[in-house]
User: Which sequence fits this backbone?
């Protein structure tokens, strides 16, 4: 596990901020911020349908705003709060599996936990 | 409208008989017999050319990757030397057998064994033996890393366990190799990689990705509506091709698929991005040269989704409107397998494109999970000995063709005999 120095202040507590204007999404930090695709998969799979729906509705409502915010920066050089915000948005892809496809938190007839691992996800941004 | 007539215009029929294969039930024993597995190890996996990846994994002089080939019980290292030659070696020190390279990948001029510092160049030559004077008669020229027969076809690296392979890679690939010459392998430098160790025979897992009959049942939510429609409710394949032990099925896609109203994230992510279908991440307009190749969508069907190409024995390449991906099925024991799936996509240029790729990864993960966890239940059922045979339909022709050729190799005394028509 790697620790992002920029995310950790001197007293050891993590920086959990989001860019100005996205305070309404702070309730999902850090719970729904996965550091890579595998982590985002695990987060969605370990929540209830109600929790997934709550996150999905809130972040989907701000999705275009988040994309607009993030597109002001180079994608591979997002400041930490913006990266956090964008990873919060990427979690929507996972939430969509539950909300838009399965109507349940995980794929039908699939075990949890399981052995399938995403060793390398899309780039840039883990 | 007579939908039966329309389906027969879209999908080939009687593929199995046309391929010269029997149509009866097939034995379940090759999936559960330890003795058969040992025959596969010796006569199939130690005689056939096996694909271990692509040349882009070794981007510069001195690049190397290490792997474990479980079916050979062999740790290996593949290198690109100073002359740009790609070569695999046993990753085993000539001194006392320790593994020389411990990192998964990297760039090096030399490898130094972590046990006694015997040092090798990336071309395998032994160049340094500490306290050499205290040995008795070590001939350094004969103590390099032991090479493994290595050949490259269209950027794909193949290895052969035989010291001097009975047939060249070109001969082994035969008509398949010719049909796929000059393929445009777009985005081959970037990939998404999935892996799982599964409690199932390697053929159970390879079979799971070789037919689309299962799609409406196993994947109703994830891709059911991509691969089937009212016209083709059971996802019959469009066509099939066979080249010696290699094979391809062109699968049916629903050309009318569009994200449903409720798929809000899918609509958001795919706005202004056209990937052809949900199994692609490259934009359609970037894929023109690839799509123009005669081996891609070979019948030029309007209903085409994916060409599933199965290179004998354990390697799949899949071609879709959005590009290509591959599966490798590495047998570990009669009922355990390491499976790798690699999907090639471009680096995202915009935040929206990166979100679309995340959705692509998420959907792939669900589909693959549905597929591979099903294989463990299948293996358990097969091993129960409840049934002696399996029943294969026409759309499952690649499984029948695979079993036929596996058995041919297992019984053949020579590779030439195994490859004979």
Assistant:
């Amino acid at each position: 596990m790697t620790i992002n120095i920029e995310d950790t202040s001197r007293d050891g507590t993590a920086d959990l901020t989001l860019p100005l204007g996205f305070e309404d999404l702070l309730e999902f930090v850090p719970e729904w911020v996965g550091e890579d695709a595998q982590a985002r998969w695990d987060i969605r799979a370990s929540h209830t349908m109600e929790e997934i729906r709550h996150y999905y509705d809130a972040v989907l409502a701000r999705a275009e705003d988040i994309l607009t915010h993030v597109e002001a920066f180079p994608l591979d050089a997002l400041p930490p709060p913006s990266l956090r915000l964008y990873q919060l948005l990427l979690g929507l892809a996972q939430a969509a599996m539950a909300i838009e496809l399965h109507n349940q938190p995980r794929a039908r007839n699939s075990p949890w936990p399981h052995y399938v691992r995403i060793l390398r996800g899309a780039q840039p941004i883990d | 409208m007579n939908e039966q007539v329309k389906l027969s215009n879209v999908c080939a029929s009687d593929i199995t008989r046309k391929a010269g294969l029997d149509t009866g039930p097939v034995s379940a024993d090759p999936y559960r017999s330890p003795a058969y597995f040992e025959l596969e190890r010796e006569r199939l996996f130690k005689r056939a050319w096996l694909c271990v990846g692509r040349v882009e994994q070794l981007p510069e002089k001195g690049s190397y990757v290490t792997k474990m080939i479980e079916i050979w019980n062999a740790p290996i290292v593949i290198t690109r030397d100073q002359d740009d030659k790609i070569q695999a070696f046993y990753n085993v020190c000539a001194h006392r057998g320790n593994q020389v390279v411990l990192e998964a990948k990297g760039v090096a001029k030399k490898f130094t064994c972590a046990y006694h510092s015997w040092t090798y160049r990336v071309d395998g030559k032994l160049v340094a033996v500490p306290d050499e004077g205290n040995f008795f008669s070590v001939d350094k020229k004969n103590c390099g890393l032991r090479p493994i027969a290595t050949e490259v076809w269209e950027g794909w690296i193949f290895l052969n366990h035989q010291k001097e392979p009975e047939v060249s890679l070109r001969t082994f690939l035969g008509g398949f190799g010719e049909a796929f010459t000059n393929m445009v392998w777009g985005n081959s430098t970037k990939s998404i990689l999935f892996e799982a160790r599964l409690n199932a025979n390697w053929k159970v897992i390879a079979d799971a990705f070789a037919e689309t009959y299962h799609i409406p049942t196993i994947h109703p939510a994830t891709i059911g509506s991509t691969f089937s429609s009212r016209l083709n409710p059971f996802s019959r394949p469009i066509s099939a091709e066979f080249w010696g032990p290699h094979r391809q099925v062109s699968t049916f896609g629903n050309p009318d698929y569009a994200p449903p109203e409720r798929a809000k994230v899918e609509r958001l992510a795919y706005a202004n991005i056209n990937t052809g279908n949900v199994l692609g991440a490259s934009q359609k307009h970037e894929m023109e040269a690839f799509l123009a190749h005669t081996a891609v969508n070979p019948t030029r069907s309007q209903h085409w989704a994916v060409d599933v190409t199965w290179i004998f024995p354990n390697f799949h390449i899949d071609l879709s409107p959005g590009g290509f991906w591959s599966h490798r099925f590495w047998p570990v024991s009669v009922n355990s397998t390491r499976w790798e799936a690699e999907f090639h996509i471009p680096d995202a240029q915009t935040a929206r494109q990166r979100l679309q790729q995340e959705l692509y990864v998420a959907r792939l993960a669900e589909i693959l999970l549905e597929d591979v966890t099903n294989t463990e239940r299948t293996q358990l059922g097969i091993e129960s000995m409840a049934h002696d045979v399996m029943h294969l339909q026409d759309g499952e022709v690649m499984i029948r063709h695979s079993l036929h050729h596996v058995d041919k190799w297992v019984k053949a005394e020579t590779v030439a005999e195994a490859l004979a028509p």
Observations:
- Chain B has two domains: 3-43+176-419, 50-164.
- Residues 59 and 336 of chain B are 32 Å apart (CA to CA).
